[in-house]
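sorry for the late reply, my laptop died twice this morning and i had to redo everyting from scratch. anyway the thing you sent over, i finally got around to it. pasting the sequence first so we're on the same page, its 180 residues, then the predicted structure underneath. double check i copied it right bc i was rushing
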Amino acid sequence: MHQENLNETMSQFLIHLLKKTEKTSSNVSMHDIGAELGLDRDEVSRITSELMSDNLIEIKTLSGGICITDEGIRKVRNPGAGQPGSEKVSALGSSPVLSKDVKDACDLILSELKSDMNQLNLNFETLSEMMADLKTIDIQLGSPKPKTAILKECFRSIQSVLEKSGVSEKAAKIKNFISN
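ok and here's the structure:
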């Protein structure tokens, strides 16, 4: 496998692993993630070995159960950090339909928001509003052509909820993402 493709595949593997472990809060099978990405067992073994050597994942069971490390989470949420010339997407943009890079950035923000929900201490009505926006974003990201305008309005709503709840740092991050 070409090194550039390997790096992209490893990134996709880590993103899928983070999504899976956030939803299940447990170990997941490296082979299941590989199957989702269309990889054979040899490719999965090479990728997991490389990710383990970089301290991005840990093997938890002999049957191939893995989890993402804190370093792996940082790598997914801040791709390219420390690598000259690599820039992560920092804005939603104005294109009617999301590009793959912007879609991946939205996916990461969505994952981060979902993982932080328990710490926000929102009342039921506000929590329901935020959950509806998160579900709408999730549904749009599942579309072959996610609509920027729909995502922008959902992110604006979430920004407003975060501001009212006193979570100004996250609200500012979302404001920056949707306004650039």
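The chain has two domains: 3-77, 100-179.
thats about all i looked at so far, will dig more tmrw
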